[in-house]
Amino acid sequence: MPDRFVRIALGVTLGLLIAFVAQPYILAFLYSADAPRSVTARGDLSAAEKTTVDLFARAAPSVVHVFAQAAAQGRALMEPDDEFGQGEQQQGSGTQTGTGFVWDAAGHVVTNNHVVEAATKGGGSISVRLASGEVVGARVVGTAPSYDLAVLQLGRVAKMPPPLAVGTSADLKVGQSAFAIGNPFGLDHTLTTGVISALQRRLPTQEGRELSGVIQTDAAINPGNSGGPLLDSAGRLIGVNTAIFSPSGASAGIGFAVPVDVVNRVVPDLIKNGRVRNPGIGIIAGQEATAARLGIDGVVVLRVLPGSPAAQAGLRGVDPRSGTIGDVIVGANGHPVHRLSDLTAVVEEAGLDRPVTLLVERDGRVRTVRVNTADVAQTRL
Questions:
Q1: Which end of the chain has less Cβ packing within 10 Å, N or C?
Q2: How confident is the model over 250-271, as pLDDT tens digits?
Q3: Among candidates 193, 212, 190, 228, which has minimal Cα distance to 49?
Q4: Selection from 329, 324, 360 nearest residue 343 by Cα
Q5: Which residue pairs, CB below 8 angstroms and at least 24 apart, start in 313-321?
Q6: What is the b/e burial string over 90-127, where b = at least 16 CB atoms within 10 angstroms of the residue's CB?
Q7: Structure pTM?
């Protein structure tokens, strides 16, 4: 009896072991999907997904890829393309790449000044690849380094893409959705999404100025996105992507865009005049770091331009012989002025040919000075 029980137990154990070993083979034989599987119906897209899909479909045809060649280099044609990981600057080729978008039916394209700057200064060439794949030549109509904006004019195209709808940056709210379309790392027409993370940021630009009112977003912006549109959920332009904060060079979730209200003011000037009329009072400000080391809270007037509104108002710069400080601007139109960007923001808000009331400190006394703004060329303010 015990021997029989042992034999049965061994038989059962052996059978289970065989079944365990054979299970994968049995399942593969019985259930292998060796023919195309049927498609499972998914139902409708969510309302949010439909909004994003429709937004991209409307806006993407207006977004272009900009290639700015610093100088004619036949050698660049023999170099292999490096679409992935190339950034905005293709090493060795002298080509700066970025994004732009169609501004009007005449074929004007808005992009960042830093995208086309090397080609503009070096006598190079600019070409634009449209969403359709067509590549056309383009020329620079005007640049505004102080706002990192430039306008291009497309050459002859088979079919002009539609201009982007323009919104406003005056009523933006932190937390609302934001959408960026661009060409990061050379990857055409990439859509990234996020929110407006902050407003009223300050961003250093060229010519010693700071751009105020800058939009911060966590929509992924990478090298190659520069000059591309930042859109709201209605597909309207609310900013031009211009910079990222990133220790690694890639997106860290902190991107910056020039607000559309600035763009809408600057671009028409660039189209009409080739340059933007910057409101100013005709001073060159001293270095902020030096002023801080001297314990000065305000904008030191380093030099006053002859014939400028500042000169007419009697402002004084630093005495070049003795080094004696003349005027320090500590307030403007009721706002405190601690640094140059504070004064710049007030002057730009006032606009051209408008009065600005300054609080000026001289020899330990503070006095009020009224000065009219003007289009002051070749000056920091």
A1: N
A2: 566 788 999 999 999 999 999 9
A3: 193
A4: 329
A5: 313/281, 313/369, 313/370, 313/371, 314/369, 315/281, 315/283, 315/360, 315/369, 315/371, 316/362, 317/283, 317/284, 318/286
A6: beebbbbbbbbbbbbeebbbbbbbbbbbbbbeeebbbb
A7: 0.73
Three-state secondary-structure class, residue 122:
helix
Two tokens, residue 376: 């002051």
Token readout for 264 is: 């809408």
Exposed / middle / buried, residue 255 (Cβ in 10 Å: 0-12, 13-18, 19+)? buried
Residue with tokens 């080509």: 95
Gap between the Cα atoms of 133 and 114, Å rounded: 24
Residues classed as catalytic: 114, 148, 226
CA distances from 13 to 7, 16, 20, 126 (A): 10, 5, 10, 78
DSSP reduced 3-state for 217: strand
Q: Residue 19 and residue 14: Cα distance in Å, rounded?
A: 9
With H, G, I as helix, E, B as strand and everything else as coil, classify residue 113: helix
Cα distance between residue 186 and residue 74, in whole Å = 21
Spatial CB neighbours of 243, under 8 Å, sequence gap ≥ 6: 148, 203, 226, 255, 256
Q: Tell me the per-residue pLDDT of 127-181, one tens digit each, with 9 for 90 and over.
A: 999 999 999 999 999 998 888 999 999 999 989 999 999 999 989 999 999 999 9
CB atoms within 10 A of CB 177: 18
Neighbour tally for 192: CB within 10 Å: 21
* Residue that is written with structure tokens 């154990």 in the block: 13
Cα dist from 353 to 272, 341, 376, 378, whole Å: 19, 20, 11, 17
Query: Which two structure tokens, joined as six digits, stand for 325?
Result: 């400080």
Ramachandran angles phi, psi of 262, nearest 5°? -70, -45
Count of all residues that appear for the chain in the document: 381
- In 3D space, the residue among 112, 104, 87, 97 whose CA is nearest the CA of residue 65 turns out to be 97
CA-nearest of 301, 357, 354, 313 to 331 is: 357
Two structure tokens written together for 125: 């060439």
Tokens representing 380?
Answer: 């920091």
3-class secondary-structure state, position 12: helix
Distance from the Cα of residue 132 to its chain's centroid: 23
